[in-house]
Amino acid sequence: MPVITCIDDLKRLHKRRTPKMFYDYAESGSYTEQTFRENTSDFAQLRLRQKVAVDMSGRSTTSTMIGEKVAMPVALAPVGLTGMQHADGEILAAKAAEKFGVPFTLSTMSICSIEDVAEHTTKPFWFQVYTLKDDDFMRRLFERARAANCSAIVITVDLQIMGQRHKDLKNGLSAPPKLTPASIANMMTKVQWGLGMLQTKRRFFGNIVGHAKGVSDPSSLSSWTAEAFDESLDWGRIAKFKEMWGGKVILKGVMDAEDAKNALSVGADAIVVSNHGGRQLDGALSSIRALPSIVDAVGDKIEVHMDSGIRSGQDVLKALSLGAKGTYIGRAFVNGLGAMGEAGVTKSLEVIHKELITTMGLVGERRVADLDRSNLLIPKGFEGDWVD
Ligand SMILES: Cc1cc2nc3c(=O)[nH]c(=O)nc-3n(C[C@H](O)[C@H](O)[C@H](O)COP(=O)(O)O)c2cc1C
């Protein structure tokens, strides 16, 4: 087995072992990919303040997210088609998260269904929903999530229409993959992946196929989005979904301080500062640059989480130091899954945990709750100096 020391090692293996269509689906952003690139490069602009001769013994990364104990404040983000990166991918990722002690978020657009994941885990997980036109379908989704003992709903508010990813169109992305000479030739080089897929029955959108009425082609993400997603979504409707669910709600995809205040007013329990990993509004600020102003606006009234661009424990530490109470990883765990299945997801979490706890020591902190902006060197103008 190769020596894995960082998320990039897993990414290389992921690329080698997974069909191009699905690797490209994960490793891309919308349009010019400016926001996708800056999500990671902006983390590098922040530097860490080294502290020496501070007692760093007994460090701990434990914390809470929406009142739930976590081994470190790093949840697995909802990722569509995870079960195409590796057979039964959502089940494997959920198991790895449960064993590690971090939250797992299941996407509506998953291959394994809510019931599948519940059957293979013992602790509550979180369920992500898109806001759809069909209230009956939404109500049924909530009922299924309740029956599966999900402890929170993550409502994604930044994808009523889909940002275009050029590679997905060129590759003809679908689940299961359409068989063309090019896709067959590529899949034939991914033997382990293919054997896994032959052995599982989970190859379709498990939460949708057989549950949604009148959707003609759920194999294609873009056609399902165009047909089912509600372009008229507003804050009133978000409040209605919160009431329909009746439990804890995390609103994902907030990038603006005014929107964060609206999230507060509809009674959300947490928000995720997120630009969907650079997959939606190309040209939006990176999440890490948007984070400080949102923390300043609402951070004392609502739990602020963040994602987009995290590839290391140092990145997690930077987000926490800027005031996030929790973070999420998307591609970083998908790279692990595509590389080595459940063991790979565990490896992603181990890599990030080790980097986080080591870096905490080197900046002279023992608890994640003690991290703050004094641990960082923030370049002047980091948040941007924009014309009103
Ligand atoms: C391949 C892929 C699929 C995704 N699918 C979903 C989804 O179904 N629902 C959702 O809310 N976010 C989805 N996201 C966004 C992630 O939840 C998260 O915001 C993003 O991955 C964070 O950026 P990172 O990958 O740089 O960590 C997806 C991201 C990726 C990379």
TrEMBL record:
Molecular function in Gene Ontology: FMN binding; oxidoreductase activity, acting on CH-OH group of donors
Cofactor(s), names only, from the UniProt record: FMN
Recorded superkingdom: Bacteria
GO cellular component labels: plasma membrane
Residue positions binding glyoxylate: 25, 165, 276, 279
Domain FMN hydroxy acid dehydrogenase: start-end pairs: 1-381
Positions that bind FMN: 78-80, 107, 128, 130, 156, 252, 274, 307-311, 330-331
Keywords attached to this entry: Flavoprotein, FMN, Oxidoreductase
InterPro entries: Aldolase_TIM (IPR013785), Alpha-hydoxy_acid_DH_FMN (IPR012133), FMN-dep_DH (IPR000262), FMN_HAD (IPR037396), FMN_hydac_DH_AS (IPR008259)
UniProt-annotated catalytic positions: 276 (proton acceptor)
Keyword rRNA-binding: no
Pfam short name (any one): FMN_dh
PANTHER family: 2-HYDROXYACID OXIDASE 1, S -2-HYDROXY-ACID OXIDASE-RELATED
NCBIfam families: PRK11197.1
Family per record: Belongs to the FMN-dependent alpha-hydroxy acid dehydrogenase family.
Protein name: L-lactate dehydrogenase (Cytochrome)
